[in-house]
Amino acid sequence: MCKSLAHRGHRVRAVVRNPQSAGALPTANESPADGVETAAVGNIDAQTDWSAALSGMDTVIHLAARVHVMHEKSGGPLDEFRRVNVAGTEHLARAAAASGVKRMVYVSSIKVNGEAIAGGQKFSETDTPAPQDPYGISKYEAEQALHRVARETGMEIVIVRPPLVYGPRVKGNFILLLKMLGTGIPLPLASVNNRRSFIYLGNLVDALIACATHPAAAGQTYLVSDGEDVSTPELLRFLAGAAGQPARLFSFPPRLLKALARLAGKGPQVDRLLGSLCVESGKIRTELNWTPPYSLQQGLQATAEWYRTEHT
Prior knowledge:
It is a single chain. By secondary structure, this protein is of the alpha/beta class. It is 42% helix and 11% strand. A four-stranded parallel β-sheet has the order 3-4-5-8, with helices on both faces. Strands 1-2 form a two-stranded parallel sheet. A two-stranded parallel sheet has the order 6-7. It starts with a helix and ends with a helix.
């Protein structure tokens, strides 16, 4: 995000939690981006001091959040998500408005719409929100808080709800798929008949820049994707082809696979692999004249090449 903005001639300030984090900007094997400053703010909550980060800025793109915690230790996970994602976001928005920031772009989540959708249907911006887990609930409550701030201060708010984001340095289920393909072990996924939307990191960055700069984006909510929905078997074959290896898949009843996953305590992860989740991204394409600069094939190729370089 920072490099792309700087490359387009913008003055950019990257916010980090501590000064040591600045060493990750830029990441290994990448040249520094001129025009990217850093400001350390510590943890994000309702007490964060944003003054050094916001001084002289006219736009905020808020990417940080408490995200999926695989081994939750908190006795009240929703409270922990709210502390960072709701209270922390609202506090940032009010500080930004007081500092003279004109627009804030907030990266929410498709989980605000829900967890899955019936085959052939797609989530859209007009759906009634139906978040189901603490993360999704906190993202929806943050959106509501931002709308309040916009009404009270006049600062422009733009909300973006992406599906699963992939690209170099991807984590979660996507990196798990790459690892499973790398083992060469046959996977019981050939019978899966689902459809899922994804967005490549480069496409998401480009969409966020459009949301930060286009006059028509003010006050809007957008769903974004690569625009090419695929099944899990198709995704695996794409990734395997990009990595120059075969995708070894065999048929296995999906219902039985789900049952076995629940017995093993992996139900939610397998549900995401087998279920459908598609988004309709026509609104941002029409209103902001935005088209993804990278195809799904290009994004998967870049991801596979990164994985091969870093893990072999």
